[in-house]
Amino acid sequence: MRRMSRTVCAVFAAALVMAVAVAPALAEPIIHDVRPGYGVTGIGWISDYHAPLRGSAVDTRVYYLDSKVEGPTTLVLGGTHSNEIAGIMAATLLVERAVVTTGRLIVVPYANASGASYADTYHPEIGYYSLTTESGVRVFRYGDRLTNPEHQGPDADKYIHYPSGQEFPGYEARNLDRAHPGKADGNLTQQLAYAYHQLLLEEKVDVAFDLHEAGPTSRLANMVVANPKNIDFAVMAIVDLEMQGIVMNVEHSSDTFHGLSHREWGDTTPAASYLIETPNPAQASNAINPDVVNDKVNPLSRRTATHLATIDAVLNAHELLDGKRTRWVGLPSYEELVSDGLEEYLR
Amino acid sequence: MDRRMSNLRFAAVVVIAALVLTPVLAVAAPKPGKPALITSAGQSTDGLILKTVMTDKATGETIPFEKLAKPEDLKGIRTLIVSVGLSSKGLGAAGINVDQEKARVRSILDAAKKNDIFVIMVHIGGTARRGAGSDEFATLVADYAHHIFVVRAGNDDGFFTRLAQKNKIPLTEVDDRIAMGPAIMKLLNTK
After folding, report:
1. What is the mean pLDDT of residues A259-280?
2. How confident is the model at residue B57 (pLDDT cuts 50, 70, 90)?
3. Which of A37, A53, A332, B36 could pair with A337 in a Cys bridge, judged by C-beta atoms 3.0 to 4.6 Å apart?
4. Residue in chain B lying closest to A244 (CA)
5. Partner-chain contact A251 B89, CB within 8 Å
6. Has residue B11 got a pLDDT over 70?
7. Is the CB of B183 inside 8 Å of chain A's CB atoms?
8. In this complex, do B93 and A249 lie within 8 Å of one another by their Cβ atoms?
9. Residues on chain B touching A249 (C-beta within 8 angstroms)
10. Torsion sign over Cα A326, A330, A336, A340
11. Do the beta carbons of residue A299 and residue A312 sit within 8 Å?
12. Would you call A211 helix, strand, or coil by DSSP?
């Protein structure tokens, strides 16, 4: 009888564990307002690269823009952190306006869709931001930096990065940019990172960008971080940008700080990998009622333009040194985007 | 009388020696010129940026950059250009620590001094590349330098001006990184 009771308890406990493990998968994918343009030749899901993510809150659309002309494959991720919206807007503009003429472009505007399912923890008052385009008002989520705890479950005291073993505070277990190169059977965020790693390998990505933002006075603001193997291209790019009047800095990936895209993608795949940071007024430590769209010093249009110009400059450097780059038409120039505003070019 | 004559003769010899040797010593002071070599002091990306802004886009002519240059790399070099800026990530990428970097920088500067090589110290990183660590490297390099070039924003506090004054060497300020290339090239091309 007592053995029976133990067996029942064990079965119940196992069922509970499985229920908790499966619970995140019961959430629905979140569809954000991205309106594909004529350049989009295919739409998939990140779960195509790691099936257990299908139907989960981190599953997100992957847009393919294929020129059918031989050339390199470039990957652009926006929204690794859902409060770093200039990257999301740059990726969205690529999906909505770019027509690729050489090679292939793969774009994910909401790299961690779960983070965009809830308001930014530091500035919940923002909630959403809107832009009035020719087709009407478009509303976008100002999300959080981390995966929604409702989707992943409570944080442990510590998060141990896989495979380095580096220790982080527990909440970093929900940070996609501490999870690369991911773990197939890890937590939800690690599985998401694993899916991007698979995408990079399966699609034979040559150049990869992860678009971020930082506080305006942060050392990282207006920065290109490059894996050491491709630092030369980043240096050439920032010199090119400075000639255009766009001042960016450049630094290597740290060799002691693990889990970041530029470090792990560059180390574990053939892709040249870059992370771009622009200054977001809401990420200043003392920001009160920040205007994330129309900030006088760092308006969203300029931050978005900086991301796009930097991507272009890095790819130009690849063309100069490698003789090839992914090329597209249809996007506004830096000056046009800054002067006309983002609203003019979103669909 | 003899003693006075002896003193006079000694004084005359000293004066004549001074007159003869002064021009010789002046001629021996190193002058800028090519071939030149860029190295880093602190392993920030600034050395690579400097090489890029010193590259002639039309002809492709450039100044070689060796981030971990050693004394033996100075063979045939007339000017050593040292780009100052400390980056822990850069040190990590180079596989060395800050003490090893200081030792390397000191050894190449000693070799440059021994071989009468003209030394240019460059700070191109602006305010972003200032701080106690970078300033320490700047102070080290300035003791060997014959000329300092700095992007104006990096000298807001007059730090490089004071270094130039202390070492009695010229300082050239430029507006931005792009202007740095032509300014140094002009000095290297001085006849």
Report:
1. 98
2. confident
3. A332
4. B178
5. yes
6. no
7. no
8. no
9. 125, 128
10. negative
11. no
12. strand
Interface membership of A235 toward B (CB under 8 Å): yes
Tokens at B21, concatenated: 């040797």
Is A251–B49 a contact, with Cβ atoms under 8 angstroms apart?
A: no
Give the position of tokens 């490089």.
B160
Interface probe with A: pick from B43, B52, B130, most Cβ of A within 10 Å: B52
Cβ-nearest to A254 among B45, B89, B178 = B89
Structure confidence at residue A13 (pLDDT): 45
**Token pair belonging to A82:** 């859902």
Terminal CA-to-CA distance of chain B, rounded, Å? 53
Residue type, A228: P
Looking at beta carbons, which residues of chain A come within 8 Å of B48?
Answer: 231-232, 235
3-class DSSP state for residue B33?
A: coil
- What's the length of chain A? 347
Residues A244, A187: contact at Cβ < 8 Å?
A: no
Amino acid at A259: G
A-chain residues near B93 (CB < 8 A): 228, 231, 252-253, 255
Helices H, strands E: what count in chain A?
Answer: 8, 14
Joined tokens for residue B4: 């006075």
Taking an 8 Å cut-off on Cβ atoms, the answer to whether B177 and A242 are in contact is: yes
Inter-chain CB proximity A239 and B128 less than 8 Å: no
Q: Are B50 and B83 in contact (CB under 8 A)?
A: yes
Residue written as tokens 């977001």? A280
Q: Tens of pLDDT along B88-104?
A: 999 999 999 999 999 99
Give helix B46-53 / helix A231-243 axis angle, nearest 10°: 50
DSSP, collapsed to helix, strand or coil, labels residue A286 as coil
Locate A102 and state its tokens.
Answer: 């050489």
Q: Taking residues A269-285, what's their average pLDDT?
A: 97
Strands (E) located in chain A: 42-45, 61-66, 73-77, 99-102, 104-108, 128-133, 136-141, 158-160, 167-169, 207-214, 223-226, 249-252, 272-279, 327-329
- CA A318 vs CA A23, A65, A308, A325: distances in Å: 44, 19, 15, 6
- Determine contact: A236 vs chain B, CB below 8 A: yes
**Alpha helices (runs of H) in B54-131, residue ranges in sequence order:** 88-94, 98-114
User: Which of B128, B137, B131, B130 lies closest to B39 in space, CA to CA?
Assistant: B137
A148 contacts chain B (CB < 8 A)? no
A236 contacts B52? CB cut-off 8 A: yes
Average pLDDT over residues A54-77: 97
Cβ–Cβ below 8 Å for B93 and A231: yes
Of A218, A191, A230, the closest CA to residue A74 belongs to A230
Give this prediction's pTM: 0.86
Q: What single-letter amino acid sits at A300?
A: L
Distance CA A183, CA A200 (A): 15
Q: How near does any CA of chain A get to the CA of B169, in Å?
A: 29
